[in-house]
Amino acid sequence: MNLDISEQYRWEKRILLIFSPTQTNRQLVEQRSWFFKNRVGFNDRDLLVIEIVNNIVLSRFPALAGKRKTPFFRSQFRVNQNKFCSILIGKDGSIKLDRSIPMDPCYLFGLIDPMPMRRQEFITMVIL
Known about the structure:
Layout: H1 5-8, E1 14-20, H2 26-37, H3 39-44, E2 47-53, E3 56-58, H4 70-76, E4 85-89, E5 95-99, H5 105-112, H6 116-127
Parallel strand pairs: 1-2
Antiparallel strand pairs: 1-4, 2-3, 4-5
């Protein structure tokens, strides 16, 4: 199975990786709360959220979840086990944002919405 998610979901999904040392990490709890309140915006933007918490990958996609994939994600994106970090990967597979503090969804959406592919999605939505 190809674990390179930037390739696996290229041109289909934007990917937000959230790394946290623990489930109870204050930054992770804050980030989850903000995201839960704005989940419709995530769906509208084809945004797949994957959490790498301690030694487990949490995702609504079973093929991505599990313990054995944690070292791969941490090494691929060079994130220390004890660090909170959010990484946004665009549909083109490139890293658009690497941030070490929780981010407000409005900030995230403000970063995504001007992207060329997102602007094209707006045009497609208007036509349909």
